[in-house]
Amino acid sequence: MDQGTEMKEKGLVYGCFLAIRIRQEEKAMKGMWSSTNP
Asked: Organism's domain of life (predicted)?
């Protein structure tokens, strides 16, 4: 496996990880907002 492919795979994994993190943080923020603003 060449370096380019390895970098692409790492980028994909990192991208997925970031997307999940952002989604979880958005859910947490919405949860906080809904609890403070009924």
From this structure: Bacteria
